[in-house]
Amino acid sequence: MENAPVISISGMSPYPGVDPDVWDRFVKWIAEVYSPLMMRWPARKGIYIYQAIRASPMFPFLLIINHHESIITQQAATKMPEMVQIYDDMDQWLKRNVYVPVTTTGYQLIKSFRNTALFPTDKPDTRIENAPIIHVEAYQLSAEEQEKY
Prior knowledge:
This protein is an alpha+beta fold. 32% of the residues lie in helices and 23% in strands. It has 4 helices and 4 strands.
């Protein structure tokens, strides 16, 4: 389903011992510079940045969810010159030991359960209206359990 909407999820945490002011500056760059630039791509439907309510080494401190029109448009966006520059800039923060990337992965929408349509379109949409808090769970199965599924 190449036309199905997709989300990409990126997690990151402060590098151990990073100066809190540098970490705060990095987070502001994400929220005030990188994300607005990324939203210029018309097929990107939204960017949501979440911060952990309680810090835990088991989970990333920041979770960024990007909503894309489809996998095709998401992959095309990664090749745009502006996006390449953002990724290069993010690498500089990484090399300076400002953040630790925890996870980056994509998910395709297969089904949505809602009482009413959130956005005026017949096309499926991954965005969530008014989601000040999200709860994310992930399970890691043993090799034997994975075979069952």
